[in-house]
Design a protein that fits this description.
CATH class: Alpha Beta
Family: Belongs to the 5-formyltetrahydrofolate cyclo-ligase family.
Radius of gyration: 15 Å
Pfam family, one: 5-FTHF_cyc-lig
Mean pLDDT: 96
Protein name: 5-formyltetrahydrofolate cyclo-ligase
Number of strands: 10
Order of helices and strands: HHHEHEEEEEEEHEE
EC number: 6.3.3.2
Distance between the termini: 25 Å
Catalytic activity: (6S)-5-formyl-5,6,7,8-tetrahydrofolate + ATP = (6R)-5,10-methenyltetrahydrofolate + ADP + phosphate
Shape: globular
């Protein structure tokens, strides 16, 4: 088993190679998401602005808006904390120090209890809910105190039968993993 940093390096290279497949699988994964009871019940949906190696979240945002849901996006904060804020639209986003588009900080708009969080990552084990993210721990810290439903959309390149990385006690398991 590789260390987390070694696994991330190898997996990120695989994700770049398989980006066209991930994009092609996005529609099927999003179709599964839109029929989930957790999605249908949610008034607020938290997601990310995806990069080219991830499932296309622009389609999730569009579907949420069409269904009258409020879309929330993460913003990183000091001390490796994260908050969710309403999506201001593409023109209102700013680029974080990690190069990720995020909403501007407004303390009056912080939404710490979204009805549903669509959790990103780079690899998942659907049988157990294990995930590994990009390495800063923002989602694990947030999810440790989050009581609501979590869902992940798992393209084939991110789907593992067993963890190829160490799963730590502080790694938060995802409740629902959708696969192709």
């Amino acid at each position: 088993m590789q260390t987390k940093p070694a696994f991330r390096k190898t997996q990120l290279a695989r994700l770049k190679q398989q980006a066209p497949t991930t994009q092609a699988e996005s529609a099927q994964l999003i179709a599964q998401l839109l029929v989930l009871p957790q999605w249908q019940k949610a008034h607020t949906v938290a997601t990310t602005v995806s990069g080219p190696i991830e499932v296309n979240t622009a389609d999730i945002v569009q579907a949420a808006r069409a269904a009258g849901k409020t879309v929330l996006l993460p913003r990183v904060m000091p001390h490796r904390q994260m908050v969710f804020l309403p999506d201001p639209g593409e023109d209102g986003l700013i680029t974080s120090k990690f190069g990720i588009p995020e909403p501007p900080y407004d303390p009056t708009q912080v939404a710490q209890q979204p009805d549903l969080i669509i959790v990103p990552g780079i690899a998942f084990v659907p049988a157990t809910g294990a995930r590994i993210g990009f390495g800063a721990g923002y989602y694990d810290r947030f999810l440790a105190d989050y009581p609501g439903p979590t869902v992940t959309l798992v393209p084939s390149v991110m789907n593992f039968a067993a963890p190829a990385w160490p799963v730590e006690p502080f790694d938060v398991l995802i409740q629902t993993l959708l696969t192709v």
